Amino acid sequence: MLAESVDHIPEPRACPGGCRYEPKFDGFRAVALVDGNGGVHLSSRRRTRFNEAFPEIVAAVFAQLPPGTVVDGEIVRWGADGRLDFGALQRRHVAGRRRLELARTEPCHYVVFDVLEADGADLRPRPLRERRAVLEGLLGDAGPSARVVASPQTADVEEARIWFDALARQGIEGLVVKSPDAPYLEGRRGWWKVKRRTTAEGIVGGVTGTRQAPETLILGRFDAAGRLRVVARTTPLPPPARARLGEVLHPAGPGHPWPAELPAGFAGGLYGSHPPIRYVRTEPDTVVEVSVDAALENGRWRHAARYVRLRSELGAADCPAFGAPP
């Protein structure tokens, strides 16, 4: 089941029976199936097998959930700074023989937010309130050291608003909002998601399209050593912004620090998930303001930023440093 984006937290009356609110974790969406013999099958919603990448989650699911159970949730990794570490999840896919070592040194958790089968019975047609009761029966007694836990859920919109603000510091992206009366509609958008967004500045170091009519912007910030580091890529620009930026962007000089092509993960998306980004380098002397969410990885915003406006009164030296908060 999928979620549709909204720009505000829905009031309880927006859902039949009152809304239910859950934190939106920044991780790998995963379905865990425990077959009748107790075998565990862990996979993405696109059926990519996760068993080898996350053996500690497979072992925990085996230990905590009985045969005939299917659950839906998010694999997450908490970093040493208390924030969600999406990069640690990505490393599992390229770790090869080091996966077992990483399972010990960078263990992950599985946050479960729904149960689709229990004791072999299909629960998807049943309302969320009933499925939630089953989930709490399965995982409600999980101790603080458990690797598989039930996602927090509240019917109190004021508590949800506190979560929305307070949990952003831990990399929680926002909230998922659900109706307690709704069944689980596989592959359909029956939930809402609302992400916490803020504004930030970035230096335009390149564009897709042409410099005179840019389609998206590649943004950077300078690190402590004075190197321009990629921090974000924007969503497609509206026509007025394309025209305005085309007037102020300058051709890159010979000393531009970025390569002719950028790996996909340098400007959003999974590393190696699609071909390198072909773009046009520009002189890094133009600053723009963008709207970004809470999903950070190694000083970069993982999700595309939304262009807000040109900051012509700012120079590149006025932009916050690489790794600084928005």
From TrEMBL:
<comment type="similarity">
    <text>Belongs to the ATP-dependent DNA ligase family.</text>
</comment>
<keyword id="KW-0436">Ligase</keyword>
<dbReference type="Pfam" id="PF01068">
    <property type="entry name" value="DNA_ligase_A_M"/>
</dbReference>
<dbReference type="GO" id="GO:0016874">
    <property type="term" value="F:ligase activity"/>
</dbReference>
<protein>
    <submittedName>
        <fullName>ATP-dependent DNA ligase</fullName>
    </submittedName>
</protein>
<dbReference type="InterPro" id="IPR012340">
    <property type="entry name" value="NA-bd_OB-fold"/>
</dbReference>
<dbReference type="InterPro" id="IPR016059">
    <property type="entry name" value="DNA_ligase_ATP-dep_CS"/>
</dbReference>
<feature type="domain" description="ATP-dependent DNA ligase family profile">
    <location>
        <begin position="110"/>
        <end position="227"/>
    </location>
</feature>
<dbReference type="InterPro" id="IPR012310">
    <property type="entry name" value="DNA_ligase_ATP-dep_cent"/>
</dbReference>
<dbReference type="InterPro" id="IPR044117">
    <property type="entry name" value="OBF_LigC-like"/>
</dbReference>
<dbReference type="InterPro" id="IPR050191">
    <property type="entry name" value="ATP-dep_DNA_ligase"/>
</dbReference>
